[in-house]
């Protein structure tokens, strides 16, 4: 395959453009556009213009992959096929998040994974704080939903679960970046944030996930000096297969005649029944199809909740969405990428990323954010440069580029 010399691409001042600069420019654009898209800022913005920002980011990533990177010819064939499938999925479903995520995964080759997570954390933290401030100041809407007699506030995001999911992923990024420094004060801080988020949003499952985060991260944050600790730490990669498989199976065979399933569905706020409805109505597709969903999110969703709640239909689980909406092929590829990262790190006795990805999988059982770049930056670890760690410390600062995929 013909490649172009990087020296031929220059700014007007003759300064060479680097692939890393293109990547982080695209990353910043996509993080901002994707974040804003799921807030009440959209009441004042044109959705087409926001989408254009993501398409610009996608174009920059394509330039980085095909001009700046030096994949082998057969790797380029694989990348082109996968991106082609993702593009086709976008055209069939009218949802671009999977296409954007896959382009970032491949474009992350040669980029420091620490830098990726740090930029994600800094930008999203700033956006979260500004969104909360603007909503509390009345500049944008702070939508108030209700469950029974309990009010649930979204603080500028489209829905309370979106707000709590942002908090969850920000805390995951914080744990990754400060892995070596985490102590009881930091863990207590995360639990306090969890409690405050629960008070505002009344997101019960998400609150439990934050507690699980602390327990899981503690299991890999100390020296693995017992067989039990090593067993737990080395189990996260295959649990990332078992959990999605089990959840999809339970959803597919869900029935109201089974009292155990009904109780589980109630604990999951009806997610099993809605997933089953999705399977029955749309089936499992190979390449995806457009699914008409009507969720509570945003001003229109709040209006529907108050006036016509019977119209509600939304598939929350990322794994069920992949099968029903994006298609079986992309679903398998996404799971292979996720499990591949976990297995690769586990084989090297590096348990931080497998633990984090296990938490991502656990969250993705009940939310739709696994393949949304504004929430989950951790799948970009496939080809980026991931530091080697020993119980949270850099091993002589050694960074290994992951070229084999």
TrEMBL record:
Coiled coil: none annotated. The keyword Amino-acid biosynthesis does not apply. Keywords: Membrane, Transmembrane, Transmembrane helix. The chain crosses the membrane at residues 21-41, 47-66, 73-90, 96-113, 125-147, 159-177, 207-224, 236-255, 319-339. This is Polymerase. It comes from Limosilactobacillus reuteri.
């Amino acid at each position: 395959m013909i490649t172009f010399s990087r020296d031929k691409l220059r700014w007007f001042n003759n300064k060479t453009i680097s692939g890393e600069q293109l990547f982080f420019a695209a990353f910043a654009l996509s993080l901002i556009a994707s974040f804003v898209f799921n807030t009440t800022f959209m009441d004042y913005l044109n959705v087409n213009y926001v989408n254009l920002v993501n398409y610009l980011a996608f174009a920059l990533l394509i330039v980085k992959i095909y001009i700046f990177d030096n994949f082998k010819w057969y790797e380029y064939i694989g990348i082109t096929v996968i991106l082609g499938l993702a593009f086709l999925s976008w055209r069939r479903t009218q949802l671009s998040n999977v296409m954007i995520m896959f382009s970032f995964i491949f474009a992350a080759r040669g980029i420091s994974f620490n830098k990726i997570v740090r930029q994600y954390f800094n930008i999203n933290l700033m956006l979260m704080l500004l969104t909360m401030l603007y909503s509390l100041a009345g500049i944008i809407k702070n939508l108030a939903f209700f469950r029974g007699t309990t009010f649930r506030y979204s603080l500028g995001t489209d829905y309370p679960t979106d707000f709590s999911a942002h908090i969850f992923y920000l805390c995951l990024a914080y744990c990754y970046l400060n892995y070596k420094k985490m102590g009881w004060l930091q863990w207590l801080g995360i639990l306090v944030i969890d409690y405050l988020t629960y008070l505002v949003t009344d997101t019960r499952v998400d609150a439990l996930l934050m507690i699980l985060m602390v327990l899981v991260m503690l299991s890999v944050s100390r020296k693995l000096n017992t067989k039990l600790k090593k067993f737990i730490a080395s189990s996260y990669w295959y649990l990332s297969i078992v959990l999605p498989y089990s959840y999809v199976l339970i959803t597919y065979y869900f029935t109201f005649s089974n009292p155990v399933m009904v109780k589980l569905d109630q604990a999951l706020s009806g997610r099993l029944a809605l997933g089953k409805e999705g399977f029955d109505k749309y089936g499992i597709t190979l390449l995806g199809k457009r699914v008409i969903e009507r969720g509570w999110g945003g001003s229109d969703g709040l209006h529907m909740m108050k006036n016509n709640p019977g119209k509600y239909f939304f598939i929350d689980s990322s794994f069920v969405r992949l099968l029903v909406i994006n298609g079986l092929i992309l679903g398998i590829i996404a799971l292979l990428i996720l499990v591949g990262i976990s297995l690769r790190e586990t084989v090297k006795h590096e348990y931080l990323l497998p633990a984090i990805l296990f938490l991502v999988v656990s969250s993705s059982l009940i939310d739709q954010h696994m393949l949304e770049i504004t929430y989950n930056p951790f799948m970009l670890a496939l080809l980026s440069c991931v530091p080697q760690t020993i119980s949270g410390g850099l091993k002589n600062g050694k960074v290994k580029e992951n070229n084999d995929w």
